Amino acid sequence: MSEALAAVGQHPAPDALVELFTLDLTPLGTNAIYYWTAGPLGGKSVTFNGVTYSAVPIELFQLTTAINGRMPVPHVRIPANPIAIGLVVGNGDFTGALVSRTRTYRRFLDNVGIGAPAYPTDEFYVDRLAQQDENYIEFELAAKLDQQGVLLPKRQFLKQCGHTYRTWDSTTNSFVTVGTNCPYAGSAFFTSADVSTGAPAQDVCGKRLSSCRARYPSPAPLPMWGFPGVGLI
Question: Quick check: 169 and 114 in contact, CB under 8 A?
Fold first, then answer.
């Protein structure tokens, strides 16, 4: 940590802390990288180290270790606007994408130039799409150094299903299936926790074996594209 950063952080009235996020989709085979910030400049974009971050109400939470000693399972949440929904559907629910968070103080933004101080960057991979409704899309993350998969050519061994699941469009009252590859087209709906629901807007696949079985009751074969036993290795 730089002396300038430490001095601001230890001040009785420290400057506003700014969170800068990078969503890197290049692990998914694209060239797309997005730079977002949630503030604090009243919905305006900011520049840090020569990179411009667009104002997006993005939120990273559940980073604190539980009292029982369990490691935290961080989540990130973004608005469920049409552009975001299109990105998610077109990029496999972001599974495997890299999410980075850099924190600095407001005084180090903009005209400081390349090399402005910041706290160490937090890096995560998107593990699964956890929840989606009319307002937000929420993803469960895994620390970059805590990945359980083994990367082989064009395929990663993850216990979560790799299929892209349908999403509900409240403006047309129908499911969006463009860009999806999950074959499920049934009228039974389940939440990301595999709980039966009558609301199609809450129909979100949890990407688990149990999520697939809920939609394909025994003895039907499961089209799951994942490796549930990976977590036992």
Answer: no
